[in-house]
Amino acid sequence: MLISGKPHTTGVCAGTPQQERELLRDLARKAEQELIGVQMASMDELTLLPNRHGFLALAQLGLEACGQLGRPATLLFFNLDDFKRINYLFGRTEGDHALKTFADVLSIGFRESDVIGRLEGATFVALLTGSCGVDVTAIKARLEEMLDERNTMAHRGYGIGFSIGQIEYDPTAHDSVEELLVEAEKALGR
Fold first, then answer.
1. Taking every annotated instance into account, which residue ranges of this chain make up the domain GGDEF (predicted)?
2. pLDDT tens column, 21-33
3. Taking the CB of residue 1, how many other CB atoms lie within 10 A of it?
4. Cβ 130 vs Cβ 113: under 8 Å
5. What is the pTM for the complete model shown?
6. Are residues 58 and 25 in the same domain?
């Protein structure tokens, strides 16, 4: 292995203890920067939720765990209602606030074991691991209540509304999260 252009063998000290500590600190900083880069590539920078790429990776792990444990899973997909209208009438900054508010409500409204992400634009998803036959009406009511509180506190000139759909994970019909998303996008009319 080469470190700083010099051969390095395990168990042999290449320099003083202080030089070794500095080298280790430098390597730790580089590793941390690479990790931050990987996280940023998988994260939607506006909402701080996983982006499509990050969601696919995390949700696939969740589905594999459900498959190994024989547990169900449900994919919920969300679209903000009238999002283009919000952007048009109130400006892009206000549209960004609506997206962030909805992302925050999703983060609070679901379990830590669920995988939530923003696919694109005003489309969000949540993979509920270990759940099947979820009551979408109850979920929608709970999320709407949280949004109503935020809308009231923010004194916006609009309300944040959303539509919701669900796809049950079927291991015989869905080999991957991608297949679930394709089915969800068909249901959304894309």
1. 71-190
2. 777 776 667 666 6
3. 7
4. yes
5. 0.77
6. no
